[in-house]
Amino acid sequence: MQRHKKLVLGGVAAAVMAVTHAVSAGGVLRLDEVAVGELDPGKASDYADSILMFNVYDTLVLPEQGGPGLVPHLAKSWEADGNSYTFTLRDDVQFQSGNPLTADDVVFSLERMQNLGQGLSYLFAGVESAEAVDGSTVRFNLSTPYAPFVASLLRLPIVDKALVMANLGEGEGEMGDWGQAFLSQNAAGTGAYTVSSHNPQEETVMAKHDGYFLDIADAAPDTVRLRYGLEPATVRTLIAQGEHDISSQWLPPEVLKALAGDGAQLLTEGGTGAFYVKMNTTKPPLDDANCRLALSHAFDYDAAVKMIAVTDDISQGSAASGAVPVGMLGANSADNILKQDMDAAKAALEQCQYNPADHELELSWIAEVPIEERFALLMQANFTALGFNASIKKLPWALFAEQVSKPENTPHISQLFVNAVTGDPDTLLYGMYHSGSAGTWQSPEYLNDGEVDSLLDQGRTAADPAARASAYSALNERLMAIAPTIYGYDRQSVFAASTRVKAPALSDPAQAFGLDGMGFSFRLMEVAE
Amino acid sequence: MIALTRLIAKRLATASLVLIGVSMLIFAIARVIPGDPARIALGPNATDEQLAKLRAELRLDDSLPAQYAHFVSELLQGDLGISLYTNRPVTTDIAQFLPATLELVLVAGTMMVLIGLPLGMLSARYEGKWVDNLIRIVSLLGVSAPSFVWAVILMLLFAFYLPFFPIAGRISEQYAIDPVTGFLLIDTLLAGKPWAWLDAAWHIALPAFALALSGIGQAARLTRANMVETYNTPYIEMARSYGFSESRIARRYAFKPSLIPSLTIIGLDFAAMLGNAFLVEAVFAWPGLSRYGVAVILRKDLNAILGTVLVISATFLIINIIVDLLIAWLNPRIRHAEQKP
What we know:
The complex is a heterodimer of chains A (529) and B (341).
Chain A: H1 2-23, E1 28-33, H2 47-56, E2 61-63, E3 70-72, E4 75-81, E5 84-89, H3 103-116, E6 127-134, E7 137-142, H4 149-152, H5 161-165, H6 180-183, E8 193-199, E9 203-208, E10 223-228, H7 232-240, H8 253-261, E11 265-279, H9 289-298, H10 301-307, E12 317-319, H11 342-351, E13 360-366, H12 371-384, E14 389-395, H13 397-403, E15 413-419, H14 425-433, H15 450-461, H16 465-482, E16 485-497, E17 501-502, E18 526-527
Parallel strand pairs in A: 1-10, 13-14
Antiparallel strand pairs in A: 2-3, 4-5, 5-7, 6-7, 8-9, 9-10, 11-15, 11-16, 12-16, 17-18
Chain B: H1 2-32, H2 37-42, H3 48-57, H4 64-76, H5 90-125, H6 130-144, H7 147-161, H8 184-190, H9 194-231, H10 234-241, H11 246-283, H12 289-298, H13 302-330, H14 332-337
Helix pairs in contact in B: 1-13, 5-6, 5-9, 5-11, 6-9, 7-9, 7-11, 8-9, 9-11, 10-11, 11-12, 11-13, 12-13
């Protein structure tokens, strides 16, 4: 009997060990993001969607690695003529289905995105038409001048028209559902990775596309498992056990720090967005620019950056130098970082028409972003030192988005993380500061300043890059002078990763793309067996 | 037999009314809570035109009664609409996520019954002895901490410090199992892959145990209390005087009448696990319906909220009906009461 027991226990232990051993992966990259992963490229908008889109699909252009500018990708070249942009396509690109890439696919991709009207389709609202000049030439005609148009194409993934047309679902009109049902579960791109399986709440499994038109390193992962919605405690345990390779950027700094302490490397991606403390310019006392300037000077920028530090060297943000993040067109030098200056704050307050003690500032923070509560407490301490009364209010995102539609319901202070979705300052600043854009989640300032509007329009329409740079520099200066916002810090995403992973675009600034999610181009990564 | 049929018909009629009430209540509540579903779904960058288009598609500008009437007419055709969270039909989501949760709850429920009841019997059988004291302490611990606390503790102990169990997911990466029922413990067998079955069982063990622990404690404590009471009744004394063995008395005479009150609570615990499963699913990255339900509530995904709540309510009601039937089967007084006009 005793012998039988030993045999059974030994068998169970052997089975468990065999199964455990089989779990250790080779050539597999495992990472996580928040749920839910949207596979349809026409609807892609957030970080998880972008990772999928940039790997399964390709775009006509790519950001220059390590610097500003764009380089051809699916396109060989392009030229602009007034409001028309003509692209010549590469002739060696095939979709994962084996279909060759043609100009018709590009036209179809644009029309599909415009018709769905979801994701980042608003970037193409000004495109009047697209036409296939011949099999490998496509022309976009814009209704009005839009200088960042080519940068917008970073968000136009090209889909396989023939494959989608063969899989149209039910819907109104000839195009049915525009292939939404099909593309929510299947891939139809030219990208370096194909989709093996997709469960929007669990994981998307991708495999290397052997027929990709560019070389992919042998050490690039053969299989990628993008998991969704893992808890920080789970991610930490998984990485510690060698069962996970890269964490999401949404881990609290403490967990990232603990992982770094366990031996994980920290990867970073930044340069496209910032943390902004937005002031409602329609509500007293913040309708007086001097009061806003006083608050801007009183904010403890250094403490804010320390609050998001992961290690002594790596932080989830760096000190801001102005309204435009460092590295972007029109930004100030990284040497001119903003600092708390209580003397300047008091001087500005003296010029303000209001007595601070007569007004209570409502400091809101978004319930889904716990770090903002700490910033609210920091501001409460900073502003109280100037004589303001400040109350803190927690707002769920849904309620915040609803409240900011009316200036009278918008809190005095709102905290937001805003990104340039194409890396161009237009997609960062126009939505925040143009008077025509007021009343959205990005623009709780309700700024109405003629000079700002004019500079934003110049930046949007000037064809010459130097003129654009000059417009955004002047805009930066103006935004510093009238202070609708406290420019908290320039955001940087930090990821904890196993040392078996090499991700040059997330570790070497000279190879960074400067576009959220593109650093996760798996074809450029390497995983050790 | 007629009595049981009548009981089932009565319970089904009540359940239908409850489901209609739940659907109306959730339909109204989901629309009253603040936040624009279109804004949440389309994200912060959506334009006013995009929002207006989606609002029209979702009929959010119609009156509440008109929206509800549309929902009912679609529901009768088996269509719960599209989820704004996953951009897929809600029925597809439920079909994919429900089996994972049901499998977890069923395994946890089985653990609750197979461990909780014997522990209760053992405790009552050895009342006042060290076995009884030990079981009472352990069961009190099980009851006093919520499932997610156990989930984290068990993960730390048996997946982190002592890596005996996997941390996340339903099955290891190397097994590709085509879904037939969605229950991996069944699909792996249907696929003829016993090692995959073992792997799936290995994956479900820890989350199911975490989910079951509080129920195990509850079942053990309740069974013990009922059995201790039954042991003091004259017919047990009579059985003892006949010289029946203690184990026979426990199994045949003390356990059965003590099971009836326990069964009611076990049934409720079973159904409550559907809700409690959320945090366990989150900790163990279990792709189930409870996790989906919470995610869609946070995103105010109206169609998915309704679909999920209706399915969970229906499951809850079905479990209650099964428990009622079991109790009726065990207790002839209830069965016969149904026969009265």
